[in-house]
Design goal:
mainly alpha; 7 helices
Length: 175
C-alpha cells in the first residue's frame, strides 16, 4: 500500500505566501518597465492651437481647484487675497475694501471719465480704478487679462500698490 503525504495547513500557507510574493514582485517589476503616460520620454512639440487648448485646460483646472467664493465684492476680495498670498503680494481685506469703496463704491464696471487719465484717453476703470497701462504692467499671472475683471483688477492694483507704497494697506487716497 502506498502512503500519501499530505502537507500540513501551515506548509500550504507558506507555499502560497511565497508564490504570491514572487508573483506580486514580478508584476511590480513588469509594471515599472511598461511605459505609460506618466513615463514620457520627451515632450512633444505643440502647435500654437494645442498650446492654447492646454492652457485653457490648466486654467479650467485651476478654477475648479480653487475655493468657491461668491460672485460679489466679498468673494472677489477673498479670491484676490488667496491669489495675493500665493504670489507674495501684501495686503489685507480691510485695506482692499477701504480702497475699493473709496475708488468705485464696489462697482466693478466703474469708469472715471473726467480725471487727467481720462482726458489723456486712458480712463481709470474697475473696483480700484486702474488705468490700462498700469494693469498691463502689474497684471498678476493666473487672473483674467481684463481690466474690469474684479479679481484681476484687485490683484493688479494691489501688486502696483505693493511696488509703490509697500502694500495696498498703506494707500489712503488716490494712488
Amino acid at each position: 500500500m502506498a502512503t500519501t503525504v499530505t502537507p500540513t495547513r501551515n506548509a500550504r500557507l507558506r507555499k502560497f505566501s511565497v508564490t504570491g510574493i514572487a508573483t506580486a514582485g514580478a508584476a511590480a517589476a513588469a509594471l515599472t518597465l511598461i511605459p505609460t503616460s506618466a513615463h514620457a520620454a520627451e515632450p512633444a512639440k505643440a502647435s500654437a492651437s494645442t498650446t492654447q487648448a492646454k492652457a485653457a485646460e490648466v486654467t479650467k483646472a485651476v478654477k475648479a481647484a480653487k475655493k468657491d467664493h461668491p460672485d460679489n465684492l466679498d468673494g472677489w476680495i477673498r479670491e484676490a487675497l488667496d491669489i495675493m498670498k500665493d504670489k507674495g503680494i501684501p495686503g489685507s481685506y480691510e485695506g482692499l475694501h477701504r480702497n475699493i469703496m473709496r475708488e468705485s463704491s464696489g462697482n466693478p464696471n466703474a469708469e472715471n471719465g473726467w480725471d487727467v487719465n481720462a482726458q489723456n484717453g486712458t480712463p481709470s476703470k474697475g473696483l480700484l480704478q486702474v488705468i490700462q497701462p498700469t494693469f498691463d504692467a502689474y497684471h498678476v499671472e493666473g487672473t483674467a487679462n481684463s481690466l474690469t475683471d474684479p479679481v484681476a483688477n484687485i490683484t493688479a492694483a494691489a501688486n502696483y500698490a505693493a511696488d509703490k507704497y509697500g502694500s495696498i494697506d498703506n494707500v489712503d487716497s488716490a494712488y
